[in-house]
Amino acid sequence: MSVPRRHAGDPDVIGQTAALVGFLREVVQSSHQRLRDTRSWSPFWLADLPARVPRPSDEDDRPLLILDHVPQAAAPEVPPVLEGWIDERLCQDADAADPPLAEEGPYRTWVPGADDGDRWQDGEATVTREDAEEVLRAYGPWLARWRLWAERERAERSQRELYEKVYHWHQQLAQQDDQYELVLGVGLLTWSEPNGGVIHRHVLSRRVETQVDRRTARITVRLTGNGAARLEDRDFLDTDDGWVPERSAAFDEELSARPLHLLSEEALECLTQWQDLVLPRPVAFSTNWRPPAGPEVGARLTFAPALLMRPRDRNAVLGFYDRIAESVVSERQAPLGLAQLVMSLDSEDRASWGGRQAPALFGEEPLFPGKTNAQQRSVLQRLQRDTGVVVQGPPVINGA
User: Fold this and answer.
1) How far apart are CA 49 and CA 46, in angstroms?
2) Residue 61, phi then psi, degrees to nearest 5
3) pTM over 0.70
4) Are strands 119-128 and 180-192 parallel, antiparallel or unpaired?
């Protein structure tokens, strides 16, 4: 009695393969927790860019940000004549008031031509500020230099903090790009629910990449060239919120078919269209770059562009499994690699899978780097027919 051969179009094979894909999808989905409030991601709002950093444009060929390394400058050194008259600890704080001159201080005399050069020599007595003419003459010019330093330090501090933040993101992506991603988000949807829940998440996003010039330490932040704008409403909204999934799917298809820069006027129009079509509930819309102070009772959609470092979204994996399952069912063909995971297939089944004869794995005359023996050639012959061969024993080198 002949046993029927398995093939790619076998309904039983297709059914079991699709079931496997569905199971893998459920495993990924069950481990994915929806996040409706993303404030824990500590977004950087582009409205808070330092004054010296230009606001990014909506031109595709231009980077979002260019950040130069700004080294921190030391405070002006206190001259010897003012030592003991100024608390040097106060000189290091650019946010503090002017470092005051003490009411009295050490009495010093100028000693020219000493062994170690001209210098001020301390005496045992003290003198009041009004009687220390040399101190008063030196304090004014030094204070002017200190004020310039403090003003420059305050202006550069926010630029330096942004540089350090983005550089930390760059290092994190270099080491854990399989776990984290940097995105630009626009269209911040916020509202507070009667049960205490909060929605605070962007509707549109696009992946961002960073580059660091090793010579100048300049950081360039730009949108990825092969990425498209992504609609994220299905990640945090459901029908109880008034969200219409069918309209969202149709809107997502239209969004994927056209290039869209998230900082353009077209992105604003896209958000208003999404609001009217996909979320038919009263929503206040604002083009402001600055986010609202916090979620309110009424729903609000604010442009509010921001950079966010976040864990990689598993919805891409879910979509990958969906496409595999759809392909298996629509084409009525089970991929050999998946079919082997759910049932045993012999070498004849695998060789003719999909209605075609599989070519030889190594060709007719494989090239070996050294001499071979019968056992090694036997292993290769079995690999031509089977998916794996177990070889037991010590390694054999050069046919020995």
Assistant:
1) 5
2) -90, 5
3) no
4) unpaired
